[in-house]
Specification:
Rossmann fold, five-stranded parallel sheet, two-stranded antiparallel sheet, 6 helices, 21% strand, flavoprotein, NAD, EC 1.7.1.17
């Protein structure tokens, strides 16, 4: 059983969301001593020039305004650090990830904080964690040539050091929603805690 789960939902839908249902089922199935909740339907800010300048200012040289600009990002990174399992409800919107999820990525992918540059390329600093993606789509088959969400999510999680990534898919819901949802629910029950 994981000690701490970070449960992220990226769906804009607060009700009747397949990914919210599946991510919640995953969290309940795994059990945890603690669950940190992050709902991206409450929008995160987009990066600005001031944020970028603050991020690239050495920590010991940041002024109060810069520290304030990075406070939310620091909190999001702490949520990732505190969790040993990350469960993400991730719908496919227009062949890719929701903008809210991209905003979260931009706030947590920080050089020197969650990844570092080396002679061999970037190295993720959040190793030893497991991620489970609950992905749903209307017509896009997960891992198909038109699915730019699943591969991107795997890649960016690996970029910050999270290489153990599992996918539970309820894809192509527009074609056969009952079968897609049943297959995904069954896959959740097969997850190892």
């Amino acid at each position: 059983m994981p000690r701490t789960i970070l449960h992220i939902d990226a769906s804009a839908r607060r009700t009747a969301s397949t990914t919210r249902e599946l991510s919640g089922q995953i969290v309940r199935h795994l059990g945890a001593d603690r669950v940190i909740r992050r709902d991206l339907a409450s929008p995160l800010p987009l990066l600005t020039e001031d944020w970028i300048n603050a991020n690239f200012t050495p920590a010991d040289q940041r002024d109060a305004v810069q520290r304030d600009l990075l406070a939310l990002s620091d909190k999001l990174v702490d949520e990732l650090r505190d969790a040993d399992t990350i469960v993400i409800g991730l719908p496919i919107y227009n062949f890719s990830v929701p903008a809210a999820f991209k905003a979260w990525i931009d706030l947590v992918a920080r050089a020197g904080v969650t990844f570092a540059y080396s002679e061999n390329g970037p190295k993720g600093l959040l190793e030893g964690k497991r991620a489970i993606l609950a992905i749903a789509s209307g017509g896009t088959a997960v891992d198909s040539e038109i699915d730019f969400a699943t591969g991107y999510a795997r890649h960016v999680l690996g970029f910050i050091g999270i290489h153990d990534v599992e996918v539970i898919a309820a894809d192509r819901m527009a074609l056969d929603p009952e079968a897609a949802l049943k297959n995904a629910r069954d896959a959740v029950t097969q997850l190892a805690a």
